[in-house]
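Below is how a single chain appears once it has passed through the pipeline. First comes the sequence as given, then the structure the pipeline wrote out for it. We keep one example in the README because the format questions we get most often are answered faster by looking than by reading.
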Amino acid sequence: MKIRYLLAPALAFSTALAMAVPTFAQDEDDSVANEKVFIGAELSGDQVTEGGAPGASGEFAAETTLASGQLCYTLTVSGVDAPTAAHIHAGAEGVDGAPVVTLKITGDAKKNTCVPVAADLLEKLINSPSDYYVNVHNEAHPAGAARGQLDYN
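Resulting structure:
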């Protein structure tokens, strides 16, 4: 008889705990997904593996959350005549890789531009930004006029 009185509160407690744990886990997942991440790069012609534009420089600054599905950024460059394209490429420092995100040169360090990014790629950018780089191209330097390796800001 005494066991029945002890068993009922224990069962109620374990049921409440089992129901609460997924809620705590969900809250943690939501906070991670909505946590702002800041990444950026300092660009220069020296960082281009095939040799970029002499004196080229620039800055890339971005922010995102995993839940947003987008990357909001500013990209400014100088010393690059008539840029034709800008991308985020996959590739470690000193290694060329394929473009994975097309960018626009904003020209204004205070005005954000946002681009959609697939969830799996966004997660990789957030978790390992140094596996990617920003590259600005022009006609004289189709492989890149200015490049900068991404890192956390």
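The mean pLDDT is 86.

See the next section for the split statistics.
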